[in-house]
Write a sequence for this structure.
């Protein structure tokens, strides 16, 4: 199989990640629930991953990183934990349903939501956010990279505009963490939501959020914490505040090994390789008659995603042919980003998304280009 | 049979993360001690506490302070 569905999940994981999970499954107790070696080992392991993630995103200290099961949980926690009735929030049409649906729920609770449209390239700019500010604007919530087009937004300037006015900047890094350098302090990010199983190369069921010191997020869940057992209210100290219940220690062991791998390889190496593969694929398909590529390719400093359609063919049919006849795995149909599909005019047809990893090869890209060419004939 | 009790200093924390940070930093600075379940004499946030023999604490207390880890309570006990 040629796996071009890395924006959904990276299937090829480093060997060290697989080994770390297996080792954890053989040895870990429940973190923070005891003082025997099995429990302490789990606590040490998770603390080590917390430290590495905090360093990786340049957070102030490990306690600012809370682990969740994925970006969706992090984003739900952020949206529902900072907004109150009467608040206003600015977001974009690029967003995934994991941002939009929690926001629609909050709209029913009298939160005002402005959804910024994109231009013909599928882009939204910092000044669009600034123009949308109202006296009651509480937060800017935006994706770092579109899961549909791969376009990357200037979250640093968006964050600066927010910080200047005392507005919170919440960033969805689902498509960028592990590939793009993210420095939450330099980029003025108050809450960063990430998943472990995409660019970070960790197991599914891992993820988390960075919350800047001084930002108070009401927890989505309450329950066991290993601390303050006799208090009726869930503890407010980070990271426990946002981590009710047993953590995914086994998965997090894998995430820790994945971060080590990324640090050894270097994000600039990984990004350059992915972007080179994307560029080769883009240049190979863009001029094929009948092929329409979506998104902004004026710069190649973007997520390694090329989304296209062939003639008026159903994207699902194209994806099925790609897999059955060429062994190429892609994502088709609607990509959980309904407003972006509306903006691109692909609500009926959907779109075929090719998304690359640094584990892909130039030969695979070449076979992908040839498959698109044959299907377009 | 319960062990013989010796004078020691017990440090408590508000979160497991702080307790794990203590263990790691003490290891790096070669400060003796270990994590134990919080003794019932103490009310603490986190169920883990850092225990040091009293004589070790006296010897290393400046270094413990310099770790800059927020300690909830510091209690002298016979454990």
């Amino acid at each position: 199989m040629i796996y071009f569905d890395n924006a959904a999940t990276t299937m090829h994981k480093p060997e060290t990640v697989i080994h770390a999970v297996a080792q954890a499954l053989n040895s870990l107790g429940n973190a923070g629930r005891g003082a025997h070696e099995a429990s302490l080992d789990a606590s040490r392991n998770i603390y080590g991953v917390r430290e590495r993630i905090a360093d990786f995103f340049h957070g102030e200290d490990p306690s600012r990183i809370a682990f969740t099961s994925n970006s969706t949980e992090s984003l739900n926690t952020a949206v529902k934990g900072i907004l109150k009735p009467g608040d206003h929030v600015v977001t974009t049409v690029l967003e995934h349903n994991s941002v939009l649906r929690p926001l629609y729920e909050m709209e029913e609770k009298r939160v005002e939501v402005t959804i910024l449209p994109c231009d013909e390239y599928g882009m939204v700019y910092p000044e669009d956010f600034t123009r949308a500010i109202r006296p009651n604007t509480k937060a800017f919530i935006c994706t770092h990279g579109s899961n549909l087009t791969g376009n990357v937004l200037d979250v640093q300037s968006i964050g600066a505009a927010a910080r200047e006015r005392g507005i919170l900047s919440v960033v969805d890094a689902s498509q960028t963490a592990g590939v793009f350098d993210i420095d939450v302090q330099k980029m003025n990010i108050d809450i960063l939501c990430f998943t472990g199983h995409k660019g970070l190369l960790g197991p599914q069921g891992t993820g988390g959020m960075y919350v800047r010191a001084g930002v108070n997020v009401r927890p989505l869940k309450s329950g066991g914490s290993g601390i303050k057992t006799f208090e009726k209210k869930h503890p407010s100290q980070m990271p426990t505040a946002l981590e009710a219940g047993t953590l995914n220690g086994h998965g997090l062991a894998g995430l820790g090994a994945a971060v080590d791998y990324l640090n050894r390889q270097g994000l600039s190496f990984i990004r350059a390789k992915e972007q080179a593969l994307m560029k080769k694929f883009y240049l190979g398909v863009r001029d094929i008659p009948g092929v329409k590529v979506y998104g902004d390719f004026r710069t190649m400093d973007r997520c390694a995603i090329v989304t296209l359609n062939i003639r008026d063919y159903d994207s699902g049919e194209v994806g099925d042919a790609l897999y059955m006849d060429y062994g190429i795995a892609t994502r088709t149909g609607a990509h959980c980003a309904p407003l972006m599909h509306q903006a691109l005019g692909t609500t009926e047809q959907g779109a075929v998304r090719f998304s690359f990893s640094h584990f892909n090869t130039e030969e695979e890209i070449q076979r992908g280009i040839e498959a698109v060419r044959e299907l377009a004939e | 049979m319960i062990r013989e009790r010796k004078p020691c200093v017990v440090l408590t924390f508000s979160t497991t993360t702080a307790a794990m940070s203590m263990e790691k930093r003490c290891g790096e600075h070669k400060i003796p001690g270990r994590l134990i379940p919080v003794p019932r004499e103490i009310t603490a946030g986190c169920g883990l506490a850092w225990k040091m023999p009293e004589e070790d604490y006296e010897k290393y207390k400046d270094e413990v302070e310099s770790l800059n880890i927020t300690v909830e309570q510091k209690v002298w006990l016979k454990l």
Summary: The longest strand of chain B covers residues 7-12.
